């Protein structure tokens, strides 16, 4: 086991899981060919380790709604602890809020420019043989606007819940969401690459050794 790992529960490693571990095809494929198989195989490995696994309530409800995991819910909840972060007692650096607001303002300005660009294109629709259709233009506008405003940033309360819970527990965040990982890194949350999580679980099973504490 790599030296330098630590967990908040004595020497027990803890991980906060994001839905992307099971919904991102590139990541989930390490556990199985579909969501049910991926979750089942993850649970089989997780139960053989001494690690603690967490998922915020809002994220768990989102996962159940998207993937319909009712049949696996009892086993999942027996392995992964479902709880919300203590939002009213956690302290978040003020500088992070300033940086978030600054980035939001920049993205909104960029979004307006994208909208202006496509509005001009809409005025040209049908005026030449090379013009694109209105439906195609609207689809392209939505994609560009979504990418400009949402990619690489915290854009939901579920994202915030994952970050706050990892911060509160001093746990490793396991996510394939680049925006979430970027903001988690800004406030010093420990990260583990979701693509390699199966490898880590198998390593934990093989060693079953406590993680050494890092000197403070």
TrEMBL record:
<keyword id="KW-0819">tRNA processing</keyword>
<protein>
    <recommendedName>
        <fullName>RNA-free ribonuclease P</fullName>
        <ecNumber>3.1.26.5</ecNumber>
    </recommendedName>
</protein>
<keyword id="KW-0540">Nuclease</keyword>
<dbReference type="InterPro" id="IPR014856">
    <property type="entry name" value="RNA_free_RNase_P"/>
</dbReference>
<comment type="similarity">
    <text>Belongs to the HARP family.</text>
</comment>
<dbReference type="InterPro" id="IPR029060">
    <property type="entry name" value="PIN-like_dom_sf"/>
</dbReference>
<dbReference type="GO" id="GO:0004526">
    <property type="term" value="F:ribonuclease P activity"/>
</dbReference>
<keyword id="KW-0378">Hydrolase</keyword>
<dbReference type="GO" id="GO:0001682">
    <property type="term" value="P:tRNA 5'-leader removal"/>
</dbReference>
<keyword id="KW-0255">Endonuclease</keyword>
<comment type="function">
    <text>RNA-free RNase P that catalyzes the removal of the 5'-leader sequence from pre-tRNA to produce the mature 5'-terminus.</text>
</comment>
<dbReference type="Pfam" id="PF08745">
    <property type="entry name" value="PIN_5"/>
</dbReference>
